[in-house]
Amino acid sequence: MTTTLYFSRNPNPRLAVAVARHLAAPVSFQFAEPLAPGQAERYRHLNPSLRLPILAEEGGSLWEADAIACRLSQLVGSDFWRTGHDLPGMIRWVSWARDHFMRACDMVHFERGTKPRYGLGPFDQAALDEGLSHFHASATILEDQLRDRDWLLPSGLSYADFRMAVFLPFNDVARLPLADYPAVDRWHQRLMALPAWADPFAGLSAPELPPVPR
Question: Which of 40, 102, 172, 209 is the most buried (most CB within 10 A)?
């Protein structure tokens, strides 16, 4: 059975594809829309929540981008997902990202990007202000961490960097004030210099996201 990564262009599926392309993992890529009308039963046996990404292998399937990144690193024998002394440090940043920096970015992106893109209701200024407040608080911590190093871990690029930055490729619509944090902005630019991160969908059949109305 071919190992297949089912994906879309949304942030977490994009993250999984970027990891697979960065690691040159032996997977095939399949664009999927499990929540589209009539599509649910094609994917429910792979992920009962019908959320992407999904990694399907002989013997079963795996969902959630972090778990998939771990598995892809195993497949190619890479320490991109750390396994030794640096593993606790990597998990620390992955966990912190979800609760702080990534959460803040998501709150802002939801109001400025996701809502208007999919018509999910009126703009909520209070929610945006809360997201920006969380962004500034967490970006201040990230700025201090990155001021004297290129990547989150002293040993170099790891999955923690990809996870932390998952919403930044969408900053054309989120408009987070990265310029206020020079070290964070430089880190973001280093990531964007990686082909697999800058354009993980290169050469893949993947319809563009709906445009955000201006």
Answer: 102
User: Which H or E element spans position 31?
Assistant: strand 28-31
The DSSP result for 128-147, as a single string, is: HHHHHHHHHHHHHHHHHHHT
- Look at the alpha carbons of 90, 93, 97, 101 in this order and tell me if their dihedral is positive or negative: negative
At 70 the pLDDT is 98
Task: Decide if 125 contacts 119 (C-beta within 8 A).
Answer: no
* CB under 8 A, 24+ apart: contacts of 69-73: 69/15, 69/16, 69/19, 69/159, 69/162, 69/163, 70/159, 72/16, 72/19, 72/20, 72/23, 72/25, 72/27, 73/19, 73/23, 73/159
Q: Classify residue 168 by its DSSP letter.
A: G
Amino acid at 99: D
Q: For residue 16, which phi and psi values (nearest 5 degrees)?
A: -65, -40
Predicted pLDDT at 1:
61
What is residue 211's DSSP assignment? P
Q: Which residues of the chain have pLDDT under 50?
A: none
Q: What is the maximum alpha-carbon separation in the chain? A: 51
* pTM summary value: 0.96
The set of residues, in sequence order, having a beta carbon less than 8 Å from that of 25 and lying 6+ positions away, is 3, 19, 72, 75, 76
What does the alpha-carbon distance between residue 108 and residue 175 come to, in Å, rounded to a whole number? 8
Question: Are the C-beta atoms of 177 and 143 separated by less than 8 Å?
Answer: no
